[in-house]
Amino acid sequence: MSDTENRTFDWFTPRRFGLLLALLVFASFPQVILGLQTFVARDYGFFAYPLAHFQKDCFWHGQIPLWDPYNNCGIPFLAQWNTMPLYPPSLIYLLLPLTWSLSFFCLLHLWFGGFGMYWLARKWTGNNFSGAFAGTAFAFSGMTLNLLMWPSHMATWGWMPWVVLAVESAWREGGRKMFIAAICAALQMLAGGPEIIFFTWLVLLVLWMQQIIKNEFPRNKFWRFSVLVFLVTAMCAIQLFPFLDLVANSQRQSGYADLRWSMPGHGWVNYLLPMAFGHAQTEGIFFQDGQYWTSSYYLGLGTLWLALLAVWKSRDRRVWLLTALAVFAVVFALGGNTPVFPALRKALPQLGSVTYPVKYLLLVTFIAPLLAAFALARLQQQNIQKQTVALGSVLFLLLGVIIFWACRSLASPNDVHALLLNGFSRAVCLIITGAMLFFLVTKSESKFFSVAPLILVAIAWLDVLTHEPAQNPTVPPNIYQLNLAREQLAMNPQPELGGSRAMVSPKAFMDFIQLALRDPKNNFLTKRLGYCANCNLLDATPKVDGFFSLTPRVNNDFISDIYGTTNDFPHLEDFMGVSQITAPDQIYKWQARSNFMPLVTAGQKPIFLDEIGTLQIVESKDFDGGKMVFLPLEAKPLVTVTNQTDAHVISSKFGTQSVEIEAEASAPSLVVVAQTFYHNWVASVDGQKTPVLRANYGFQAIQIPQGKHLVRLVYQDHAFELGAMFSIVAWLGCLIGIFAVRPVPKSPQP
Questions:
Q1: Global pTM?
Q2: Which of 166, 200, 303, 358 has a beta carbon 3.0–4.6 Å from 137's, enabling a disulfide?
Q3: Are 464 and 145 in contact (CB under 8 A)?
Q4: Quick check: is 334 in a domain?
Q5: Is residue 463 part of a domain?
């Protein structure tokens, strides 16, 4: 390789690429980084931002956010995992203004992931330019930009290349790198994207097995991988134990799987023509027909071209392994569109834990930049000019065929015009990419050769940035103003914690799903006034439903029944303390209810029934929560009350994760709390521990003796406490190990 070539390809030093990538991120989202606009699309506004606000509120009140009392009549919060309560970099948005810092948090991990991919590809190929292209392609792909709406997924994704890099180095070299790898993997684990974490360790497992078989490191050191898994598990036990406890008691028990949103059978064409077979929908975001989890999985034509070239010409074992994983991912992403995934899911039900099969394409998005890096390294080592040109020609012709095919399926001239424009712009990107590759393949001595790598990186960025309408539309930050809906709605009575709740009507719930305003600001504000999803957290307004990945099974059962029909449940709504319900005419208006009960009542007659019978009666017109309470059959030995009693609640005070009740009874009585039953709630009467009974299928009840008593309910997560002990010891051990273990001297390179 000539001196000119060396200078050209080695120009992308880590410092220079880190700065270049930062400039590309800034050029993509200047209004967000400067604080003039903020993200809002889809789950960012309705899920991520409200939960971050709740977490921040708990942080500044000195509380660990174990329980959310505002949604689903109460629901575990920390155990959700994707709420990121224990992820250390969350301090970015906990300490800084949230309207700016949460978006910045996402973009910082976008940059961090691209920089990590640079280091990984650079190590595997030994080439700065290959690393720079891979880093850019990883940070700017359709799937990565889609992940910006989930801070937890974006953080987990940003750590993926770093974890692969660190863990592989650890099992090969050992020593201090074992502890560094454990810390990197633990930080990814705490970020809370289960599927991405699974894909990360799947890649690592395949690499580890291949290197053991090929004797690429001493076989007597095979234990290092197992030790790393143990260390990471121990370091994250504080999060994993509550999560697994919630999973075991949630709606996602054995047999649960959501197989909607597979990649369509023709979905492969979107790797070349991203706007084929789909439409711009809510907030102007484009989606494939029938698949709505990701707004895009487009890689960029340059990345696709080079990745296919690597598969064709590279003889590196890593390329073969990565290619096999990519093929596996595409087949699984097709879900029920092929017989493969359904058959394997029957044999291995655990595969159903990855909801929405299209998520398997995350593996392709991780692998393609690495394959492209191998191709670029090979371009500089061998003359494969003919193969490069041939593959580019095939892609160009295939793009033309797809444009013709897709246009025939469209009826609207506007849609045809948009598709043709999309296809033309992709063709231009393909031609420019081909021109740059021509200069690299021919090793031209012209001055243009020295800037070709930089142009190739730039066109890879620009291709993805312009491949469809904005995936992450932005709006002014004031849409997240606290108590905005509370002030405009002026509810009377106003639902308050411990007082009463708001309830989105079943009709409004379905209307929110169907509502698709093109303007992202109006779309969010309209739904915010109707307390869609978790927007109620921005106004500290308790409500009946919420938007979470996991819910306690008993809570999910009756919530699903309520919102799975248009029927009314007036007596159940009374018991849940619903003082406001969506007005029948407009989803952003509310009407008061006058018959709602206090959230704490006393003196009901106990009736013992099985689960099915209890759920049927609680949802029927015969239910009277003020006179009767339904308890499970197994609770009968714990209850001495046999009839309705003269008892009343003197006062009640609800905190974030505690309830204090003062009640008086003329005889032993039951105190019923309209709060979600979950086994972590512990009750005491005058300081003496007493059982918390599951009442009315999914709520709480406590028996008190005759007289005046102080009842206290406290949320105690024993899984969290046990996990904390393991994690503290493991983290201290790793930190001590980093400083105590001397670096392993590197063997001389041949």
A1: 0.94
A2: 303
A3: yes
A4: yes
A5: yes
Report if residue 43 sits inside a domain: no
Domain check: are 388 and 497 in the same one? no
Statement to judge: residues 496 and 443 lie in one domain: no
The total domain count for the chain is 3
Segments forming the whole domain that contains residue 606: 602-719
Q: What is the pLDDT of residues 484-506, one digit of tens each?
A: 999 999 899 999 999 999 999 99
Question: For residue range 323-355, what is the model confidence (pLDDT) as tens digits?
Answer: 999 999 999 999 888 888 777 777 776 666 667
662 alpha-carbon distance from chain centroid? 41
In the chain, % of residues over pLDDT 90 = 77
Tens digit of each residue's pLDDT (9 = 90 or more) over 383-422: 778 888 899 999 999 999 999 999 888 767 878 888 999 9
Q: What are the backbone angles phi and psi of residue 335, rounded to the nearest 5°?
A: 55, -125
pLDDT of residue 748: 47
- Residues 501, 584 within the same domain: yes
Burial 318-328 (b: 16+ CB within 10 A, else e): bbebbbebbeb
| Residue type at 563 in one-letter notation | Y
- Render pLDDT for 248-286 as a digit per residue (tens, 0 to 9): 999 876 555 566 788 998 999 999 999 999 888 888 899
Q: 539: closest CA among 487, 501, 582? A: 487
> Which H/E stretch holds residue 408?
helix 385-408
Q: Is 467 helix (H, G, I), strand (E, B) or coil?
A: coil
CA dist 645 to 628, 652, 665, Å? 10, 19, 8
Residues 639 and 687: their CA atoms lie apart, in Å, by 19
d(CA 745, CA 71): 55
Q: Under a CB-based contact definition with an 8 Å cutoff, are residues 389 and 442 in contact?
A: no
3-state secondary structure (DSSP) of residue 59:
helix
583 and 663 share one domain:
no
* Residue 743 predicted with pLDDT over 90: no
Residue that is last in its domain, among 472, 500, 522: 472
Q: Which residues on adjacent β-strands are paired with residue 421?
A: none
Give the pLDDT of residue 403. 93
The values of phi and psi at residue 300, to 5°, are 100, 135
In this predicted structure, the answer to whether residue 443 has a pLDDT above a threshold of 80 is no
Chosen domain end from 592, 621, 655: 592
Residue type, 433: T
User: Exposed e or buried b for every residue in 580-614, given b needs 16+ CB within 10 A?
Assistant: bbbeeeebbebeebeebbbbbbbbbebeebeeeeb
Rounded Cα–Cα distance for residues 526 and 586 (Å): 10
Does 500 fall in a domain?
A: yes
Answer whether residue 11 shows pLDDT above 90: no
621 and 524, same domain (yes or no): no
Q: How far, in Å, are 159, 205, 240, 564 from residue 164 at the CA level?
A: 9, 10, 21, 43
Q: What is the dihedral angle through the alpha carbons of 518, 521, 526, 531, rounded to the nearest 10 degrees?
A: 120
pLDDT score recorded for residue 750: 36
3-state SS, one letter per residue, for 524-578: HHHHHHCCCCCHHHHHCCCECCCCCCCCEHHHHHHHHHHHCCCCCCHHHHHHCCE
436 and 294 assigned to the same domain: yes
Q: Are 282 and 524 in contact (CB under 8 A)?
A: no
DSSP string, 331-395: HHHTGGGSSHHHHHHHH-GGGGGS-SGGGGHHHHHHHHHHHHHHHHHHHHHS--HHHHHHHHHHH
| Domain co-membership, 271 together with 363 | yes
Q: Return mean pLDDT, the chain.
A: 91
Write the CATH number for 623.
Answer: 2.60.420
